[in-house]
Amino acid sequence: MSTKVNRDTFDEVMVPNYSPASYIPVAGKGSRIWDQAGNEYVDFASGIAVTSLGHSHPELIDVLHGQVDRLWHLSNTFTNEPSLRLAQRLTNDTFAERVFFCNSGAEANEAALKLARRYGFDKFGVEKSEIVSCSQSFHGRTFFTVSVGGQPKYSEGFGPLPADVSHIPFNDLHAAEKAIGKRTCAVIVEPVQGEGGVIPATPEFLCKLRELCDKHHALLIFDEVQIGVGRSGSLFAYMEYGVIPDILTSAKALGNGMPIGAMLTTERVAKSFSVGTHGSTYGGNPLASAVADKVIELVNRPELLQGVKRRHQLLTQGLSVINERFGVFREIRGKGLLIGAELAGDYRGKAKEFVTASGSHGLVLLMAGPNVVRFVPSLIIPEADLMEGLKRFEAVAAEIVAKANHQKTAQAI
């Protein structure tokens, strides 16, 4: 018999580094989820851009069940068929010639940063160690990645931090020119900053980073953990920009909920990870790799990627209509189905209020900092579900605006 648990159980037994919603989801199908009480929600969060093919996708379930009956795990003293097939698919479909598998985006970025430092050391010596990142960036929660990430709130209190890391303003060409030099071994950038507010890079900025990395023999790393695997409207966002990195990191949607991360790179750069220099106990796990291989097969189809662009238009147009009525947003921005709506005026700083209120209206939302409401639906969300989610968000906005107006009236009396 299963032990009965509820939201209060979290406060009793879990480390308090999260503040989860008041309800507990227990089932999901497509773009809908249900909680313990049977309440239904439209999912505009996708587990933070993870379940991009929705919940309980039948083809992914079939693949997982097939692999469960064959082989779950091997140590890295072996390779395995599913991980080889996945690596082959990724190298066939991208710039990459070599792949390293791990369990998460943070681990993929950790591997990318370690590889870049090792490559700099191998080719140019110990002085080639500086890493340049962007302010407001987010690259994971390991000690190295929170140091490289450009949000001090994630690294404060964990010092002393790794040295030779500097940050420049995102999309600032002049700052990039000043910061990147002969000691730089790598520049890491998100083509669309996710946690930093859903801010797309300008084509000029990414082109400048490529130019400066070539000039100073540094590696260009694209963190596509959130925007990759179809979310931009292309398999990976670098394809949208036409700028090819030396290393690319992927996770989140790669496994549609199965824990897997990947670092993609060229043969030339990969040589610096010789035997024993890096590893992962579960990286390339047969279960996760089998599912991820099917995910890439399903996502990398013209009709699905075109569907992402159509849904982008429907979602942004719908949010614009809501904003015309309520005036809660200063800007609606993003790429593909990673959309950020920056709050305006009296609503600034209230993104958490929107996310919390959405639960009572049967909608799952995210925030990207205190000023940005983030919309990250499945890449294949039915248009009827998309419109229903927008209808529910309109009710959220109406509630918050009415509350704000009531408070203003009360203060004026």
UniProtKB/TrEMBL annotation:
Pfam families: Aminotran_3 (PF00202). Its EC number is 2.6.1.11. GO terms for biological process: L-arginine biosynthetic process. Its cofactor is pyridoxal 5'-phosphate. InterPro entries: Ac/SucOrn_transaminase_bac (IPR017652), AcOrn/SuccOrn_fam (IPR004636), Aminotrans_3 (IPR005814), Aminotrans_3_PPA_site (IPR049704), Class-III_PLP-dep_AT (IPR050103), PyrdxlP-dep_Trfase (IPR015424), PyrdxlP-dep_Trfase_major (IPR015421), PyrdxlP-dep_Trfase_small (IPR015422). GO terms for molecular function: diaminobutyrate-2-oxoglutarate transaminase activity; identical protein binding; N2-acetyl-L-ornithine:2-oxoglutarate 5-aminotransferase activity; pyridoxal phosphate binding. It is an enzyme of class 2 (transferase). Keywords: Amino-acid biosynthesis, Aminotransferase, Arginine biosynthesis, Cytoplasm, Pyridoxal phosphate, Transferase. It is found in: Cytoplasm. It comes from the Bacteria. Binds 1 pyridoxal phosphate per subunit. The modification N6-(pyridoxal phosphate)lysine is found at residue 252. Pathway: Amine and polyamine biosynthesis; ectoine biosynthesis; L-ectoine from L-aspartate 4-semialdehyde: step 1/3; Amino-acid biosynthesis; L-arginine biosynthesis; N(2)-acetyl-L-ornithine from L-glutamate: step 4/4. Pyridoxal 5'-phosphate binds at residues 105-106, 138, 223-226, 281. One of its GO terms (cellular component) is cytoplasm. N(2)-acetyl-L-ornithine binds at residues 141, 280. It catalyses: N(2)-acetyl-L-ornithine + 2-oxoglutarate = N-acetyl-L-glutamate 5-semialdehyde + L-glutamate. Homodimer. Belongs to the class-III pyridoxal-phosphate-dependent aminotransferase family. ArgD subfamily. May also have succinyldiaminopimelate aminotransferase activity, thus carrying out the corresponding step in lysine biosynthesis. This is Acetylornithine aminotransferase. The gene is argD.
